[in-house]
Amino acid sequence: MNNKKSIIAFIIGFLFITSCNDDYLDRAPDDKKNEKEIFTRYAYVDQLVTDLYANCKSANKPLLFFNHFSSSAITDECSASSHEAAIPRQFQIGNYGPSQGMPDRSSVGQYWWDLWTKVRKANVILEGVEKYNTPDNPESGGAGDITRRVGETYFLRGYLHFLLLRAYGEIPYVDYVVNPDDEMVFEKLSVHDVVAKIIADADAAYQRVNASNGGTYFGRVDKGACLGLKAMALWIAATPMWNGGNFPDDTRLFKEQYTYDPARWLAVKEAAKAVMEAKDNSGNLRYRLYSASNETDFGDINGNNTSNSKVYKRLWDMFYDMQSIQQEWVWFVTRDKDTGWSGDVLPPTQGGHARQRPLQEQVDEYEYMAPDGYGYPIYAGRAVSDGYDDENPYESVRRDPRFYRDIRYHGSVYGNTVLNTASGNDAVGANYLSASSHTGYYMRKFYKDGWVRGSGTHIINGPAIWRLPEFIYMYCEAVNETGGPNQEIYDLLNGVRVRSFMAPIPPAALTDKALMNDYIQRERRVELFYENHRIWHTRLYMEADDAVELQKEQNYVNPDSWPYPKTQRWSHGMRPVEDPDGKIEVDGKKYKMVRFAVPDERVFRTPQSYLFPIMTDELKRTPGLVQNPGW
Asked: Which residues touch 21 (CB under 8 Å, ≥6 apart)?
């Protein structure tokens, strides 16, 4: 191979491009000159680690998991428009596979080949630093910067394997450098063996990084992130897909290892608790729920109440206030998207074309506040007697405040403007091709309340990849699973709800394990809406083939047959219909809301859709690997 390019040009312009044209990574085994130049200087290694951060964070951007779209549109959270090659729609209709590939233009570094490239980069760094005993940062006077960079790299290697595990299930664990001329001999491990290796990398990182980081280092790996990685990996291993669930048409290599073991939930309990109790450099709690502003503050970006007292300042500001980010976000991407995305998601009358539109399936999960002071789902047996009216679902009862922050609906107020989905450019569209919503809803979450196109930039710092509530739910689920409900988890769940100005869970859940689990799962779905969580949760819990959900599917008669099955094969919305007795008044006319089926041809194939396929050309290069079930 030609080794004439300078190492400086390589570092600046071609860092870790793993192709046959890359001089450094394709070097002959006996040519160590460039390698030595890199790994005997701290500044070069520091730059390699910094670039690896960028690579890793681009591989899991919650708002852009499928390039221009989040993963919400291939779940029962949202449906997508036809813009930007209609990438989510290709997933919805099952237009992907090991031979045809993933939908065109959807890769942002989140697939098999991209993730393994990044794993190799991490291994090159770890091997090079050890081999050449890279010196510490000369500008810090030997303060341990190189040790922290090594710790960060261990974390990132474990994190990359976590992303592979989450999407592909059984995978190899590659913790050594693979060179281009090496024989590609890899074999899958069981999920539980992979999790053990992720934990080992997280532990190695934990021993080397700071308890917390501030200033220019804020956002780099700290001990809390390492604990978070362990908890997330253990949670995957404890969920039904890998712990006792009835995986359909099971051809997994290590299926005998996936029988139910309660010890896996006990491990989740301990790991999630460790995150919740993590300390910062001063010995104080590292993470706390954000609680700035109060129940009287409905201020928008200008401090004005322009939402008809529906959207609390705390609930939108939690994604922008640095206090929230510093005290609640465990691992995150900054500046995930900007003004362009915000404008695209707006309704047509505000210059947008609603790229992703919330579904009724998601809207129905936001509870209401009952006269007895507790929160219940709108499909609870008592909902109607408590005042819930499905023809006036948004105002007949007071819904969870997160609903008003997350969803724009017929009659909702944004910037003192009332949304009309009955007529005009924002009316419910006939199909996903139209610019207006074909579900009857528009996105609101992640907006600085009151922002309109043309009023300045709208940089979105999140959502976080992992936030504190996720670990609270994880802990509560593990406690409930292994010992049943208790006062501790009841209080923890209500703590998140109180932060959101939501009514507490009814006390009946304190003595009912199944009811407590219902609240945990609904809380998770509402709090983490549109944060790249639902796509994995519905698969890990195998909801598409759950007997209860399949029974709902069999009992389905028409759109009024709700609650809808969580099998990922259904899409519904609501449209306003003029009615002289309607309770919703918009632009001088009265309406009632009517449910309808959304024609987006949603497909979920068993068992294919549970795991991403490995591309055929990848299997040819690595003949020891086995394709995922159903592909």
From this structure: none
